[in-house]
Specification:
Blueprint lengths: L7 E8 L9 E9 L5 E8 L10 H7 L3 H4 L7 H15 L3 E3 L3 H15 L13 E2 L2 H11 L18 H7 L10 H18 L1 H9 L3 H10 L3 E7 L2 E13 L2 E9 L4 H6 L2 H8 L6 E5 L5 E4 L5 E2 L2 E2 H13 L1 H11 L21 H12 L5 H6 L4 H14 L6 H16 L11 H14 L2 H16 L4 H7 L1
Parallel strand pairs: 1-4, 4-5
Antiparallel strand pairs: 1-2, 2-3, 6-7, 6-10, 7-8, 8-9, 11-12
Helix pairs in contact: 5-7, 6-7, 7-8, 11-13, 17-20, 18-19
Length: 471
């Protein structure tokens, strides 16, 4: 029997940068609440820098974290931190996991942290858990219930949904913005306002946190309204389902009914493929497990100047045209990219088998001395690479000399970028250039942090080999 969701877990991360694949969490904070958003428990933890990661100076300036804090040997390692995070979140489950832009960022870097630490990455949407994103709800409310929440205006005269601006505009003292726990508190504050001032939107978001509910809605509503945001600009589309993504059955494909459908039908495959790739894309992908903001057409008399009855008629005509729907699905298929050489970007390259799941659990129960043999027994080569990297960081003496040397060489290439035309991560040279440029701007609030970073890069990182082998 499925366990009922019990309350919410609001969480936030502070990280070494913006890459969800190649940066790491430095601080994690979470508050568990009941169904009425009353706090039940809280959790906060920090960790030290992993040896193969160079932090972005800009990220450290934003979070006001000096380099000395993140290389403090008294802090737990990233692996040790992630094990504690995983244990706490599992103990709080089942619940609705949420935060500010969690589905856009924090969820992804948390998944990477779990994956790279030999845990299942899908903790927040399995075992009865589900997810919503308070940012998405606020963006939808700005269109559907504009009086529910105050949206501040930035220096360019445009609405901004940055939490450090929006929370204070709605009565929250956010002097400690970009601290993970402070950001969690700010998110809960905004969430309460949305719940109280836009109860219908809040209730609908909770209902659609369930993947099965979203799937049923999309199956039963011939026409519906989707609210999404692009560059902080909320947009709405009147859509009808045309099928599912061939590469992922959890992605529903839906056609924008405001577009001239007859014109699309008349196009050649080449013309139609070109049109489908241009923004705004006529075919939208809706992730059923990502709490999309959906409303039934029945709530609208008109939408974007078109009568609801006319939109419904278009939807029924498209539904009856199987050939056209199949053509749209075929031409909307995403191009398959070659497999990445980097283990971080292989996170979605297949699920881990049951035997390896059991070995992962054994890894966490074992001593470091026992772990090399467990890692060697993995059938999934991703887990072998990740497991050896963990051992190399914590107990390199337990690895054979050739494996230790190979990992050290990869670490050196990673932090120097040697041999790569471009990198998706921060290298020593890039960090040095960024820190020097920011220091030259002369912001006194950043001076000490940047000076510390430059000293770290100049004095400790040039000897990339020894740094990598220390782990």
């Amino acid at each position: 029997m499925r366990r009922r969701l019990v309350g919410f877990v609001f969480y936030d991360t502070e990280t070494t940068g913006t890459s969800t694949s190649f940066d790491q969490i430095l601080q994690f904070a979470a508050i568990r609440t009941d169904d009425n958003l009353n706090e039940i428990d809280r959790f906060e933890i920090r960790c030290r820098l992993m040896p193969h990661i160079v932090p972005s100076p800009g990220a450290l300036c934003v979070t006001r974290i000096g380099i000395d804090r993140i290389i403090d040997p008294a802090l737990p390692s990233h692996y040790e931190m992630v094990c504690e995070i995983r244990a706490k979140l599992a103990a709080w489950s089942p619940c609705i996991f949420t935060g500010w832009n969690t589905l856009g960022f924090d969820e992804h870097i948390l998944r990477q942290a779990l994956y790279q630490s030999l845990h299942s990455p899908y903790l927040t949407n399995t075992a009865g858990n589900s997810r919503i994103d308070i940012l998405k709800i606020a963006q939808a409310a700005s269109v559907l219930a504009p009086d529910a929440i105050t949206i501040p205006i930035n220096k360019k005269g445009k609405p901004t949904f940055r939490l450090d601006r929006l929370a204070p505009a709605n009565g929250f003292d956010h002097a400690n913005a970009h601290d993970a726990l402070a950001d969690v508190k700010a998110t809960i504050h905004v969430c309460r306002i949305l719940r109280d001032n836009a109860p219908d939107i809040w209730a609908n978001a909770l209902r659609l946190s369930q993947k099965s509910t979203v799937a049923a809605f999309l199956e039963n509503e011939p026409c519906f309204i989707l609210t999404e945001s692009f560059y902080n600009r909320p947009c709405q589309f009147a859509l009808t389902k045309i099928g599912v993504d061939a590469g992922n059955a959890g992605n529903v494909l839906a056609l924008n009914l405001a577009i001239d459908i007859d014109q699309l039908r008349a196009m050649t495959d080449e013309e139609l493929a070109s049109r489908l790739s241009r923004s705004p894309k006529p075919v939208r992908r809706i992730r059923t497990n990502a709490a999309p903001m959906l409303r039934p057409l029945s709530e609208y008399g008109y939408f974007d100047g078109i009568a609801a009855a006319d939109l419904l008629d278009r939807a029924y005509r498209i539904e009856a045209d199987d050939e056209f729907c199949a053509r749209l699905i075929r031409l909307s298929a995403k191009e398959e990219w070659p497999a990445s050489e980097f283990v971080e970007e292989q996170i979605y390259s297949g699920f881990v088998g049951r035997a390896d799941v059991n070995r992962m659990e054994a890894f966490h129960r074992a001593t470091w001395e026992e772990r090399p043999a467990i890692v060697d027994g993995f059938g999934d080569i991703r887990l072998v690479a990740l497991g050896r990297r963990l051992i190399h960081e914590h107990r390199p003496d337990l690895l054979p000399a050739n494996i230790r040397a190979g990992i050290a060489a990869k670490m050196t290439r990673r932090i120097t970028g040697d041999g790569y035309e471009a990198t998706a991560w921060t290298t020593i040279a890039a960090a040095h250039e960024e820190a020097a440029a920011r220091l030259g701007i002369g912001n006194p609030d950043e001076a000490n942090i940047l000076a510390g970073i430059l000293n770290y890069l100049n004095e400790r990182m040039p000897n990339a080999g020894p740094v990598a082998t220390v782990g």
